[in-house]
Design brief:
Its EC number is 3.1.-.-. By secondary structure, the chain is α/β, with parallel strands linked by helices. The protein is built from 7 helices and 19 strands.
Length: 343
Amino acid sequence: MKVLPQGLYCEPGDFFIDPQAGVHRAIISHGHSDHARPYHDAVLGTAETLAIMTARLGEGRAGNTQQVLAYDRPIEHNGVRVTLVPAGHVLGSAQVVLDWRGSRIVVSGDYKRQADPTCLPFQPVPCDVFVTEATFALPVFQHPPARAEMQRLLASVALFPERAHLVGCYALGKCQRLISELRQIGYEKPIYLHGAQASMCALYERFGIGLGELRPVPRPAKRGETVLPGEIVLAPPSAEANPWMRRLADPVTAVASGWMRVRQRAKARGVELPLVVSDHADWPDLLNTIEEVGAPEVWVTHGREDALTHALGLRGVRGRALHLLGREEDEVEADVAAEEPAA
């Protein structure tokens, strides 16, 4: 494996994994836009990931040719055995397992270890080299159960029935997870969506992920009126600063993100109800996963690379920071420009 300007390159297989620019052959771990770039000649991924890419990028930009590879169904390319296994990040997300001449590298992409009703759980694969993200690779990041955070949201709705609750969340993955978690704790009322969230919810339902009744946010009947007191509205994080939110009844502003663990971050953004819900592994889960796969060498990318490599060294594991270009600290979305860049 080599780190080239375009990204991580498998030399014997002659393909890239999640490249940052158009290449001749790419394996895509999942559909977030910092991993699924346009203009590749040939793209391989799960059916869900390729459908997400097509929906977001369009037919002509999501790969000239697409090849679906199901989980745990290996194929061989130029002598390299390629297997996709679940990563537990979002619908269709996969780790890329590469076997060549008796050695195995696992490129995990983005992953989490918490249960998520909208995607298959992370599958640990023993390997010689493990490529891990480091988005939340600091000891302060320890994520509570998502269901407990949704209970906090419902408690706030009950406490302020005269106010709408506007929850900022990413359109792909986080939005659908929040809806599913709410349904699992018995919330049966309609959930209202900003227009940016609707298409991905429809795609999830197409793949069999039931989300219950979803409605668009209505316009007020009269100028100056507000709507949806006592209701939950899901929108991109940037919607909090948009005049669009003025139609909501005195909204309680919430954001669902692992970064809400940092109180100063929530305070700086004026978030009344920070919800610590992440689609990435937290610090304990990063360390436990690395121990579980048993790799003597770990390559670390996009996030707190130095902190994690230092912690690995104390455990006798060789750590290498890849410093891949083009990554963001969390999923990059066209509609979340308010997010800060990676450190």
